[in-house]
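Q: Second attempt. The first request was missing the SMILES, so the protein and zinc ion are both included now.
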Amino acid sequence: MLKLMRAPSKYVQGENALAELYETVKDLGNSFLFICSKSGAKAAQPKIEQSYAGKDAKIIFEVFGGISSTGEIARMQKIAKDNHIEVICAIGGGSAIDTAKATAYYEKLPVVIIPTVCATDAPCTGLSVIYRDDGSFSNYIFYPKNPDAVVVDTSIIVKAPVRFLIAGMGDALGTYFEARACLKTNSPSLENGGITKSAMALCELCYDTLLADGYKAKKAVELGILTPAVEAIVEANTYLSGVGADNGGLATSHSVYNGFTALEECEKTMHGEVVAFGTLAQLVLEDASMEEIEDVLDFCCSVGLPVTLKELGVTDVSRVMIAAEKACAPGESIHNMLGDVTPAQLYDALLAADAIGQDYLGK
Ligand SMILES: [Zn+2]
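A: Got both inputs this time. The predicted holo structure:
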């Protein structure tokens, strides 16, 4: 297997980054369709209009339906065609991003990602999750390239509810441990390549940054203020986690997330919150040192990520087997683990992680 490294062509982050959006993306084309979530449009549209004021470029804003569904993507493609659009942009969270990436791919246009929350590592990755129009999961699309530009305006991110940033840290927590598991078994990355030293370095930096700056960033965003720690965590959640996972691969943490989507009692739990608990389960499966497990527990508790099943919304432990079975379905990334994992083994690891977490909270 050949080693492979992919990333967005351009990554821009900082206070009021959108004030310079025109300059950042002007070389990509002259007419831009911004596919927005409702809250994303509210937060970003005025700044973008200001950045384009007096410039020789056409901009259109369109609020999408909220789900990256096949119907919604077709509707965006039509708007792009009717208006001779040359660049597709996403404004919002994961669903707006996935809709824009797919629209750009089908229309063979460049794509710019402008996240207005920092809850997942979707902005920098080269893939999308697509749903049917009824909201059920349809398929993944793996793209031939990562986004042409990702622009993160941290003045907008700090105004979003802190739970998004915390969930983003949970998503980023899995990155290093999942890549390490893939490296051990010589499993391919999400981009189906061998894992480079560069990818592992990004994954390690992602974890180190979470430990160094997670708590400080959480306290700042609770107040809606921007500090160097917030900048560090936004970069960890977005670039380090996204490029790290893309090129480092996934293992147990993300399969646990997919498994728990089968439990309706966990519907309100965010992606990254489940990934964080899944990381604890992965460490149990790997029989990691108590030192490492305690580092992860310390981090989770300091930022408010769940360490027990109850915190995920599970009250009836017998239902955990349903999640374990789904997490171990064929094709799941948990099969990248050394020696493979059965549903029964994962069930036991989830219960053991829960017991350790409960004990830790009781300390
Ligand atoms: Zn994720």
